[in-house]
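quick one: 6-hydroxymethylpterin-diphosphate bound model?
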Amino acid sequence: MGVLNVTPDSFSDGGEFLDPSAALARLGEIAAAGAVICDIGAESTRPGSEPVGETEELRRLAPVLGGIVGGAPLAISIDTTKASVASAALDAGAVLVNDVTAGRGDPDLLSVVADRGAAVCLVHMRGEPQTMQHEPRYADVVAEVRAFLEERLAAAVAAGVPEERVLVDPGIGFGKRLEDNLTLLRELPVLAAIGRPVVVGVSRKSMFGRLLGREVDRRMAGSLAAGLLAVDAGAAVLRVHDVPETVDALGVWRAVRGGR
Ligand code: HH2
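yep, here:
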């Protein structure tokens, strides 16, 4: 899953793809590089980010969504917490709604997904983006994330989303300390045991700043290593900014692990 942020403030690519033609060119690059899904977002959820209103989110997305009506070169995911934005993206041909609140942010989001026959990615997040990194504490991070994802899976099914259309995501960096992120990556098989595909987003995140002392533009190698470890531990989808490099890394992984 390649990331396309149509935002001025995303932590790694903020402002780069606000221009519609740059965004559509980026979409083509992500597809050509071998991604299967492009996750388009117009609201940053990085720690400390400001929430964006529906009008502004739709305004940023409109040219990109207009550009994919009638066919995108790969499956489109919409990274939003709002039912209205999800609905507009589904109208334009998106097939997946990636909601970092796992359906808790907007009471209508899961029913929009259900009514439209779309898929949904349910992400674990402790608190809100503005405050989520203020001293997060877990007694047992793996058990708590698993219980949360199971509860949200049940909520999605209760809203009418077939279980086969649900993906789950531990939300690396969403209200977690470095040690929590590392434990979740190590214990990913516990989350895979939920029985739904596990999505993992580690790409360029601040855990590599803490672990390796790297600024955002020097985090690719760490992201590739963590991504491969996640796939080896059972992740089904990697959400990444560096698509060509990730495709190569996965090619090596597949060759070595072949037949597994
Ligand atoms: N991480 C971010 C945003 N959306 N969605 C899923 N499913 N999993 C993630 O780990 C995840 C996500 C944060 O990264 P990014 O989009 O690059 O930054 P920003 O939120 O600042 O736009």
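The longest helix spans residues 141-158.
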